Amino acid sequence: MKRISPVLSRGISKKRYQEPVSPLSKFTPPTVLFEGVKRLRAPLHTASMDKRMNAKDEAEYREDILDYMHALEKSDTGANAEMMDLQPELEWFMRPYLVDFLIEVHSQFKMSPQTLHLAVLLIDRYVSKRIVFKKHYQLVGCCCLWIASKYEDAKDKVPTVRELRTMCCNAYDEDMFTQMEGHILSTLSWKIGHPTVESFLMTEFVDRDDKKTSSLARFFCELSIFHRDFVSLHPSTIARAAMQLSRHITRHIRPCELPEIASTISALLKLLPQASATLRKKYSHPSFASVMSLLEPVTPKKYIPRISLDTPPRTPTLASVGNCDRVRGTGLPTPPSDECYTVYED
């Protein structure tokens, strides 16, 4: 038997026990490897891709979505202004206080536009079915905004019970919010997803117009939630009237001649001088294209009655709606900020 040379045996042992070297790690810098791992771990779809896909799907099924929304708005899940008239303690002049309060809370938490309209719809549906004392009116409004935020917004935009209590100047205990939330949901049979003015606006109109036109349409839609005359109207009618009026103001497009749309546009124009200071301040901001500046030359005041014929005359008075004692004494809502607005009282 031949003996293996010591030199040769050392070479064999080195080759036998030497760890294999990866060609990739031998020639690829660590930074390139790290970037490769990042690409492998990255999500397959970015936010912009998802947005384009959603827009494509929405365009494809838009007609079916609108048909379903129109059928749903005609169901029995809407509000009834005549039933709301039967409330023993609530009066319609209290509604602007509450809506102003909700708009400020909604803006402070940066909730979606859909949340505000859904909250007001939930309030109207609940008040149509249950007796609400005026001392609990603000509590009902806060809980409806809370429910709508949970339904529409991301988790980080949903206010906590402690924050809601602070907004109400500690007029209610924390457990009252959870109790009222459960009572509202049970009264409405847990049916939350009713189409609103904003949902019709987004599905049918907004993506076809510029920011100035869509912001002006949103202003008119929010103006409508202050007043009784729009409670029983279909949301699609209000959305169409608001958008056609906005297009007429910004692009001088002649509005539709349908009687229902024309009467709604006329009602919105009549209510324009009565827009609250909170709403005017909100839509004077650049984030809403400062659309309030567009409304200065719209229709001279002599052609717009200050008070509608269906509303009894009221005397304007200055009242501080930021007073916490006002909540405990009368039950009227109080905005988070201490400001004085011109409000109307009977």
From TrEMBL:
It comes from the Eukaryota. Residues 100-186, 200-270 form the Cyclin-like domain. GO terms for biological process: cell cycle G1/S phase transition; cell division; regulation of cell cycle. GO terms for molecular function: cyclin-dependent protein serine/threonine kinase regulator activity. The keyword Cell division applies. Gene3D superfamilies: Cyclin-like. Residues 195-297 form the Cyclin C-terminal domain. Keywords: Cell cycle, Cell division, Cyclin. It holds the Pfam family Cyclin_C. InterPro entries: Cyclin, Cyclin-like_dom, Cyclin-like_sf, Cyclin_C-dom, Cyclin_N, Cyclins_cyclin-box. The keyword Cell division applies. PANTHER family: CYCLINS (PTHR10177). Belongs to the cyclin family. This is G1/S-specific cyclin CCN1. It comes from Neolecta irregularis (strain DAH-3).
